[in-house]
Amino acid sequence: MYQQDNGNTTYLNNENMNRLSEWTVGYSLVTFVSILGTILRLWCFAVLDEFFTFDITIKKNHKLITNGPYKYLIHPSYTGLLLWVPYEAYILHQLRPFVSLHAPPVYKEEALLRNHFRKEWDEYSKARKRFIPFII
Fold first, then answer.
1. pTM for this one?
2. Measured distance CA(131)–CA(72) in Å, rounded
3. How much of the chain exceeds pLDDT 90, in percent?
4. How far is CA 87 from the centre of its chain?
5. Cβ(42)–Cβ(98) under 8 Å?
6. Structural domain boundaries, residue 36
7. E-only strand ranges, the chain
8. CA distance 67 to 100
9. Are 95 and 85 in contact (CB under 8 A)?
10. Is the pLDDT score of 41 beyond 90?
């Protein structure tokens, strides 16, 4: 069986892997939420179109995208990632792998966008929340 080690901690072991075959209400719920997160991220990628990249960069003729999920949130793609937290916590019984593998570089991205778009970015970011509509 495959085991991923991070220091002295084994994240995938027989007990955790057996939980994958138990379709309990909890497992079904966290699976559903993670699927919603995946759909949200794919929607973001489609809306960003030519400006999508896994690297934080400004492309030639870059435009600030304000439609689709970006109409409501500054970082909807990161929200999609956050929707995976319950699933990973359920399967692995801890949050450490999520934090170490998925901690988004939000502030670096925002600084780059603010520097490039200036006033347009300031107006855009003041009118929206970062991750959860009306909350944060």
1. 0.78
2. 9
3. 53
4. 13
5. no
6. 14-126
7. 5-6, 9-10
8. 31
9. yes
10. yes
Show the tokens assigned to 61. Answer: 């003729």
- Does 5 map to a domain? no
Here the CATH number for the domain that contains residue 54 is: 1.20.120.1630
Helix (H, G, I), strand (E, B) or coil at 129: strand
Cβ neighbours for 72, distance < 8 A, ≥ 6 positions apart: 128, 133
Residue 95 within a domain: yes
How many structural domains does the chain have? 1
Interior/surface letters 74-89, b for 16+ CB within 10 angstroms, e for the rest: bbbbbbbbbbbbbbbe
- Binned at pLDDT 50, 70 and 90, residue 107 comes out as confident
Confidence at residue 46, expressed as pLDDT on a 0 to 100 scale: 98
Residue 123 in tokens: 């107006």
Q: Is the pLDDT of residue 23 over 60?
A: yes
